[in-house]
Design goal:
The complex is a heterotrimer of chains A (221), B (236) and C (300).
Chain A lengths: L1 H16 L1 H22 L3 H33 L2 H6 L5 H31 L6 H26 L5 H12 L1 H16 L6 H27 L2
Chain B lengths: L6 E10 L2 E11 L4 E6 L5 H8 L7 E6 L2 E2 L4 H7 E4 L11 H12 L5 H10 L15 H14 L4 E5 L7 H17 L2 E5 L3 H7 L2 E6 L2 E7 L8 H9 L1
Helix pairs in contact in B: 3-4, 3-5
Chain C lengths: L13 H23 L13 H28 L2 H33 L7 H22 L3 H31 L15 H33 L35 H41 L1
Classes of the chains: A mainly alpha (221), B alpha/beta (236), C mainly alpha (300).
């Protein structure tokens, strides 16, 4: 347990020290949101309806950069290997990294919200539920994303392989998050948002457990 | 602490695809011994040390370190072993101090600034404690890696070319560490190309050639006649 | 790959026998379904596509479930056999799933007027194709056989666990748009061509997986250096799992004609299956020849 804290502390410290990279990732996400509006055209009604989808697509694209970055420091000088030898349990290292990535992705999502409000005229007073969905959705991206980032960090073709492996897997996260966000933005007369967040929570539970179980196999030789 | 040999391998083999990097390596190292590991570039020294450190699993044969199998009892073996490898294992974005603090936290040791600073001072890095490792020279990275390796309470210490990249002071530092490890009764396996120095510091020597063990015995008796070792001696 | 036994690809006529049996049954079932089965009242002749579509669906899921089983065993036990079978199951599973999407698309055009409709089953299949094709790409890009085995097994397990989640979420997502999807059971008069084709594809698929496993085994043999003393190895046998049932989708509202779509569906299926069989067989011949040349070179 103290290993988990040590791992989380290490990863948050690393994120803090490389925060300029995080800013760059945010700018990329912002640019993506802008590009989506150009691709859709300036019709306000259309943009408002698609706002949730654009937000989550933007976040998903950002996530590949952020997740890949999170393992760069581990593989440069084989730092993760050195930690494993101390010994540190691979599982603790995984959860520390996945939690830190969750924090980063959630912050990215929250940071992109004002852009969504401005570019697509899609605002809401229900800020807490909105942030709740961002928390659940980014957790769904972080767990399998950290697993695959750890895998592809050890390969040459990491840029292409991470999104290729991750995106089909997180289709449920995309669907549920977009639906829930959309309902929060445009109104939810039948109270359906709860079922979507339940689905998200179920996905999170399954994948946070499963990926933690298999991660040690991925990093050991 | 389990009794028995520090290192015991029987018929160890490890392949990378079509190439056997190690083949039929049978080696026994008793506790407290200091062994020099020599061989040409590419002879398998690094692979052997990584297998002993339980980073690589053997494809053939068995490997036991401090009584534990490196595959079955991986976690237990890692408590007893420390490896100074070719890659420094540092987080480039963090400072020297922070790197050692991270290690200290995982080891459950004192991670306060004072304690870590004292340790950095021992290794000649006190002046650069708060600089990011990315600004370090290769020799300084080596010193930091040595500092982290020595933090581990390991009874078997594996050193892969510890003198590499170090200056004269660094050489003295490593010599001193080897001496103190001898006093503490730790087992040391050191791979090096500096044959004379190795023979002074290690009582035993082992030679690898193309992944196979070609010679093992007291370092004083190591064959003089090999042309390769002559060239090494001339260079060192 | 930490294994002490020599890689021995299986030999023998089993894959060919299975494939031949499968093709025979497919021909029988397809001809019956195309020309002799009664015309369905609502969907007309387009419904005949079901006789190839439904069996493909069952077997695609079967192949992927087989791959999942091999992945679990590969992670638990290790060794080259389960990895080779995993590769066979993955590739055939991706092939059948892709074929399923093509057939579904050809069926959708006359039925619903669009080339694609977000039917939960078909959409899930499309996501599956991408997920498992990605794993095949991963396999291509990892050179070390040991890591390739572990990583692709992990990825297969992670992707397979997602299948029900994807299906459920797409079904939910789609239901809000009130798409027409009222499955009607096929009357008993039509069951026979379906069953025959199901077994036809089952046998053909098993034969293809067995042959493709051999190709994978030969490649592993070429990649891994043999140990000094060979140890006896067993012959891998095709595994059988229970088939998951799927209801064929029918629709209210009459559809006239549509024979061109029926022919298109069967032709595409035939071309894909024949093409894949031929490609696996050619790869197998090539790998065998290469292995034989290597052995001759070593002996000489």
């Amino acid at each position: 347990m103290n290993e988990l804290w040590a791992a989380l502390g290490k990863d948050l410290l690393l994120q803090w020290r490389t925060r300029t990279q995080a800013v760059a990732v945010f700018v990329f996400g912002a640019a993506a949101l802008l590009l989506f509006s150009f691709a859709s055209g300036p019709a306000a009604e259309l943009l408002r309806r698609q706002a949730a989808g654009f937000l989550w697509l933007g976040l998903m694209l950002c996530s590949t950069l952020a997740l890949a970055d999170s393992f760069q420091s581990e593989s440069e000088q084989r730092a993760m290997e050195a930690l494993l030898l101390l010994p540190a349990s691979a599982r603790a290292l995984y959860y520390g990294k996945a939690l830190a990535n969750w924090v980063q992705l959630a912050l990215l999502g929250v940071a992109l919200v004002p852009l969504m409000v401005v570019l697509y005229d899609a605002g809401t007073r229900r800020v807490v539920p909105l942030f709740g969905v961002i928390l659940l959705g980014s957790a769904g991206l972080s767990a399998p994303g950290t697993l695959y980032a750890g895998m592809t960090a050890q390969m040459r073709a990491r840029q292409t392989l991470l999104p290729l492996l991750l995106f089909p897997l997180v289709v449920p996260v995309l669907l549920s998050s977009v639906k829930a966000t959309s309902l929060i933005l445009t109104g939810d007369p039948m109270g359906q948002a709860r079922s979507w967040t339940t689905l998200l929570a179920a996905f999170d539970l399954i994948y946070w457990s499963l990926c933690g179980v298999v991660f040690p196999k991925v990093v050991e030789e | 602490m389990p009794l028995g040999m520090a290192v015991e391998t029987v018929g160890l083999g490890r392949r990378f695809g079509r190439r056997w990097a190690l083949a039929e390596v049978t080696l026994t190292v008793a506790r407290g011994q200091r062994v020099m590991l020599t061989g040409r570039n590419g002879s398998g020294k690094t692979t052997l040390l990584r297998v002993l450190a339980s980073l690589l699993s053997p494809d053939r044969g068995s490997v036991r370190v401090c009584g534990g199998d490196v595959v079955q009892d991986r976690e237990a073996v890692r408590h007893h072993v420390a490896l100074l490898g070719h890659y420094s294992g540092h987080y480039e974005a963090l400072t020297a101090l922070q790197n050692l603090q991270v290690a200290a936290r995982f080891l459950g040791q004192d991670a306060s600034r004072e304690a870590i600073r004292a340790r950095l001072d021992q290794f000649g890095l006190a002046a650069r404690a708060d600089d990011a490792v990315s600004t370090f020279s290769a020799g300084m990275r080596k010193r930091l890696a040595l500092a982290r390796t020595m933090m581990q309470p390991a009874t078997v210490v594996l050193l892969d070319e510890p003198y590499g990249e170090l200056d004269v002071d660094g050489f003295a530092l490593v010599d001193g560490l080897l001496e103190s490890m001898r006093a503490e009764g730790r087992t040391v396996l050191m791979s090096t190309h500096l044959l004379e120095r190795g023979r002074e510091l290690c009582e035993h020597a082992v030679a690898l050639e193309a992944g196979r063990l070609t010679w093992a015995g007291p370092s004083a008796d190591m064959p003089q006649h090999s042309a390769w070792s002559e060239r090494q001696r001339g260079a060192a | 790959m930490s294994t002490d036994d020599r890689v021995r690809p299986s030999a023998g006529p089993l894959p060919y026998a299975l494939s031949a049996l499968g093709v025979g049954l497919l021909l029988w079932g397809s001809i019956w379904g195309l020309f002799f089965a009664p015309r369905e009242t609502f969907m007309g002749d387009v419904q005949r596509i079901m006789y190839i579509h439904v069996p493909t669906a069952w077997n695609a899921m079967l192949a992927l479930t087989f791959a999942f089983g091999c992945a679990l065993l590969s992670l638990w036990q290790g060794g080259w056999r389960w990895d080779a079978r995993l590769e066979g199951g993955l590739e055939v599973g991706v092939l059948l799933s892709t074929l399923l999407c093509m057939q579904g698309s050809i069926w959708a055009k006359p039925t619903w007027g669009v080339w694609w409709d977000w039917d939960p089953r078909l959409t899930t299949t499309a996501v599956l194709v991408f997920a498992f094709a990605g794993i095949l790409v991963l396999r291509r890009m990892v050179e070390d056989p040991g890591r390739r085995a572990v990583w692709s097994a992990v990825a297969t397990v992670v992707a397979f666990v997602d299948v029900p989640i994807v299906y459920f979420s797409v079904k939910w997502w789609n239901s809000l748009h009130q798409m027409q999807s009222s499955p009607a059971t096929v009357s008993s008069a039509f069951h026979w061509p379906l069953r025959i084709n199901a077994f036809g594809i089952l046998f053909l698929m098993s034969g293809l997986i067995a042959l493709r496993t051999r190709v994978a085994a030969y490649r592993l043999r070429g990649e891994l250096a043999p140990p000094p003393e060979p140890l006896p190895a067993g012959v891998p046998s095709a595994a059988a799992f229970a088939a998951a049932g799927l209801q064929p989708v029918a629709l209210s509202g009459q559809i006239q004609g549509g024979w061109e779509f029926v022919i298109a569906a069967y032709t595409v299926s035939a071309v894909v299956l024949i093409g894949y069989t031929a490609s696996v067989y050619m790869r197998y011949r090539k790998e065998r020849a290469r292995a034989a040349a290597e052995d001759a070179g070593v002996a000489a």
